[in-house]
Amino acid sequence: MGKGPGLFSDIGKKAKDLLTKDYSSDQKFSVSTYSDAGVALTSTAVKKGGLSTGDVATQFKYKNTVIDVKVDTDSNISTTITFTEVLPSTKTIASFKVPDYNSGKLEVQYFHDHATFTTAIGLNQSPGIDVSATIGTPSIAFGAEAGYDTTSGNFAKYTAGISVAKPDSSAAIILGDKGDTIRASYVHHLDQFKNSAAVGEITRRFSTNENTFTVGGSYAVDHLTVVKAKLNNHGRLGALLQHEVIPKSVLTISGEVDTKALDKNPRFGLAIALKP
User: Fold this and answer.
1) Is residue 2 in some structural domain?
2) What is the pTM of this model?
3) Positions in the chain whose pLDDT score sits under 50
4) Which residues neighbour 241 within 8 Å (Cβ) at sequence distance 6 or greater?
């Protein structure tokens, strides 16, 4: 299933991850354990804006089935069941939350050497329907997605995109928000092992004539330490340090400051993930 163009959600994902992944203003601590029977247990505590929350997530694996169960501090139970290869080249994902019984969703993904298709439908009386398709190859892909609201009989969203990938770079253009926003991004890897990279992204919102341009990058200081930074034309500067303290256990320190209003308090985040 990895020979085709990928899912529509993969278009522009490399740039998005470089500019947003692991950046946080929260304090987060998580501990994971694994058993030989294929059971993974992760406990997470988060402090955000003076409020503390937490959850416990458990994952079960059996043959082509993966079951994820998460319980949060508000006693909400979220369950996701993933079936791989029930039918050839497909993945089926069922998710629901208790006590919110209207949150159920069923998604089917189909992978082909030159195309991928996904269909997701809400499991309630007035279900929303999301459909996406991508055609092409791992090097160049065209895709579109649409969301239909059966209650109002209108399209809730429609988006189109194109991506081009080379061994040392990738670029993407996405037209979203029902045609109101266009986003273009480019990622260039600075070494053959792809440990360091530079990224640029520009977003144009037509309804407000607003442009946002962001540049950033990541650099592997060594095999244990990575630093990242980003800056946009509105003066938002972010930086991140990620260090593998012990094998598989990572400490992440991140921060963000408004360079045009230095009197404002900067935002800092701390995350510790311990794994066996």
Assistant:
1) no
2) 0.90
3) none
4) 225, 226, 227, 252, 253, 254
